[in-house]
Design brief:
- The protein is mostly helical.
- The radius of gyration is 30 Å and the shape is globular.
- The protein has 23 helices and no strands.
- It starts with a helix and ends with a helix.
- It has helices at 3-26, 30-44, 62-72, 76-89, 94-106, 110-119, 123-133, 136-145, 150-162, 168-178, 184-196, 200-213, 218-230, 234-248, 251-263, 267-280, 286-297, 301-314, 320-331, 335-348, 353-365, 369-382, 387-396.
């Protein structure tokens, strides 16, 4: 290739680059803003004012900004008016149309909300948010908008079932009517329908079919295991969760397998599954709690204490590791050592009366009758007939 031709090609490429860059910089920014807007929604939540900052407050964006401010302030009518003007100015303004739908819904204008969301193709957003939050309202909205799949009907059926809503069966049937695949999800839906009708043997068959078809998918194992546990068939449930743990490595299957093995007295298997769960999620406190429980059963108090202490350092919310650590201290007579973890457990789990009673006992055994009396009284306030709290209160107030 001649130098002249090479130079010309390079010049052409440079020109194309310049033109593309110029084009991108001068294109209407709607597409870029829409992408940023959706990313913001998923990151910080629908009702965050931060998502409105991708647009200015002047020129053609003024109506949008005023509408967004009105929506966040709870002024639905003002928001609808301003956002209607914004959409009239730019029908492809996704954020304005998105919030216009919510403003319209807040005023009872449901069909207008659905019309706006349908026009901008928002059904997948509601599907994703509904599945993430197990939100019945979001999944209902997605189905009302259309352009959804059989799995979305199943997801709404699951959410309704979790909420004990009777129309769950209707959604499963609607999903099956749209599902030509007869895959694992369809078999799960049939199993759910069988459960709802009380036909547990058929539910077990369908769950087994789903497992055979998709052994890497944890949901059929979890549901089948729950059916067996509800039927008090502990051995069958343990086998299912162990199978799930082997085929999927799913964290909660591992912990369920550990728990059921412990209940069956197979402590070695229980320890193996708990250790595997800890390997899978080293920052999760629950495997350490399981390992601590197992150590207590075998009388290894030092290992149990260490496991609970490690779990307590990992856990910043539930207080469950602190509860087990505090209870362990009371079991071995370390009443002073029990007070800090039990105090944390009570703060995190105020309805846990066992933790409150143990803390009251610890105060009583360490010569703190006033604190013990207050702790016993707190139990009696929640459970006036609690005999142990009555006896403890009587002893420290003599």
């Amino acid at each position: 290739m001649s130098k002249t031709r090479v130079s010309g090609l390079l010049a052409s490429m440079a020109l194309v680059t310049v033109l593309v860059a110029a084009g991108l910089s001068t294109l209407a920014s709607t597409a870029r803003h829409n992408l940023q807007f959706l990313e913001c929604l998923h990151r910080v939540g629908m009702r965050s004012a931060a998502c409105g900052t991708f647009y200015g407050t002047h020129g053609e964006r003024a109506s949008y900004s005023r509408g967004l401010d009105a929506w966040f302030a709870g002024r639905g009518a003002d928001a609808e008016r301003e956002l209607t003007a914004a959409v009239a100015s730019d029908p492809y303004d996704y954020p304005a149309a998105f919030y216009l739908g919510f403003a319209a819904r807040s005023l009872g204008h449901e069909q207008r909300a659905l019309s706006e969301w349908r026009r901008i193709g928002a059904s997948r957003y509601f599907v994703q948010r509904g599945r993430l939050r197990n939100s019945i309202d979001d999944l209902r909205t997605a189905i009302a908008l259309g352009n959804v799949q059989a799995d979305d009907y199943y997801a709404l059926g699951d959410a309704l079932l979790t909420a004990n809503a009777p129309e769950a069966a209707v959604l499963y049937r609607q999903g099956l009517a749209r599902d030509a695949s007869d895959g694992a999800h369809a078999k799960l839906a049939r199993a759910r329908l069988a459960e709802l009708s009380g036909d547990l043997p058929q539910a077990i068959v369908e769950y087994r079919h789903a497992i055979s078809q998709a052994p890497q998918y944890q949901e059929p194992y979890l549901r089948l295991g729950r059916v067996y546990r509800e039927r008090h068939e502990t051995g069958a449930a343990a086998a299912v969760f162990s199978e799930c743990a082997r085929h999927t490595g799913y964290f909660w299957c591992l912990l369920s397998a550990s728990e059921l093995a412990r209940e069956a007295g197979d402590l070695d298997a229980a320890r193996m599954w708990a250790q595997e769960a800890r390997f899978r999620e080293p920052r999760n406190p629950y495997p350490l709690i399981h390992l601590g429980n197992l150590a207590e059963l075998t009388g290894d108090i030092t290992v149990a204490r260490s496991a609970y202490e490690q779990a307590s350092r990992l856990d910043a919310s539930t207080g469950l590791p602190s509860y087990y650590l505090g209870m362990l201290c009371t079991h071995v007579g370390d009443w002073q050592g029990a007070i800090p973890p039990l105090t944390k457990a009570v703060a995190s789990m105020p309805s846990n009366l066992d933790a409150r009673l143990a803390l009251a006992d610890a105060y009583a055994h360490t010569g703190q009758p006033s604190a013990a009396a207050a702790a016993y009284q707190a139990v009696l306030t929640a459970a006036p007939t609690n005999q142990r709290a009555r006896e403890g209160l009587a002893q420290v107030t003599r």
